[in-house]
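ok, trying the design again with the full structure, not the truncated one.
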């Protein structure tokens, strides 16, 4: 049987932002969304020559074993969009759980809950769920898709006792409207397994990646979110 191979963008061996403890972060190649604020525009394309088997990934993970285990960290799969490569992740997470690693997925959640995704989530200790915009029309404009699937995804995680961190990119004049933030709070309050809410201030550091690809940066001229902006959003959402 041919080995399952994953399309890999890059690896971070000492991640501290994508889950608890020190994380081995595997960035997958490919994303179907078109988020205007994306700072990893180079991960969108699904074609790549950088293919790895699950065993190759695990060998790399083991090199970081002392840091991961000491810090009570684990392995986070990010992207791009990891859920475009579910069979690879099922095989990878099955092996990682056998070896005792904490597993996490950073995803938009804009997917139907298929049997394979159910299986993968049973192997997942934490989901970092990126809610793009609670307002559906604004979400379509921001990333090209309705938010209905990602909100249903969040409900599935809650109903099946799967821990999640909610991630929200705060973009001035686009995702910082008070009414939208209050509606987001109302939705999050219905979820039972939210352990953390992260407000990520919009920055344009990834603009050069768009330029390098010969693309126009969609948010040219939009101001970066300030600390004051973030504090205001946190106050509205009722988080410290």
């Amino acid at each position: 049987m041919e080995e399952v191979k994953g399309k890999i963008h890059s690896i971070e061996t000492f991640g501290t932002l994508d889950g608890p403890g020190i994380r081995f972060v595997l960035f997958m190649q490919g994303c179907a969304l078109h988020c205007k604020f994306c700072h990893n525009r180079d991960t969108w394309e699904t074609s790549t020559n950088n293919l790895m088997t699950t065993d190759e990934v695990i060998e790399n993970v083991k090199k970081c074993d002392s840091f991961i285990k000491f810090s009570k960290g684990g392995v986070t799969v990010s992207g791009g969009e990891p859920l475009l490569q579910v069979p690879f992740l099922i095989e990878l997470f099955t092996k990682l759980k056998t070896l005792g690693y904490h597993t996490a997925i950073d995803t938009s959640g804009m997917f139907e809950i298929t049997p394979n995704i159910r299986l993968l989530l049973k192997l997942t200790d934490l989901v970092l769920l990126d809610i793009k915009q609670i307002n559906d029309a604004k979400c379509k404009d921001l990333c090209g898709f309705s938010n209905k699937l990602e909100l249903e995804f969040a409900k599935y995680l809650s109903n099946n006792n799967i821990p999640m961190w909610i991630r929200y990119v705060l973009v001035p004049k686009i995702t910082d409207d008070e009414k939208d933030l209050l509606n987001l709070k109302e939705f999050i309050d219905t979820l039972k397994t939210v352990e953390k809410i992260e407000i990520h201030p919009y920055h344009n550091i990834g603009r050069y990646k768009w330029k390098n690809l010969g693309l126009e940066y969609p948010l040219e001229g939009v101001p970066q979110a300030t600390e004051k902006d973030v504090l205001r959003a946190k106050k509205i959402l009722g988080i410290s």
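Keeping the full-length input from now on. The first helix runs from residue 54 to 62.
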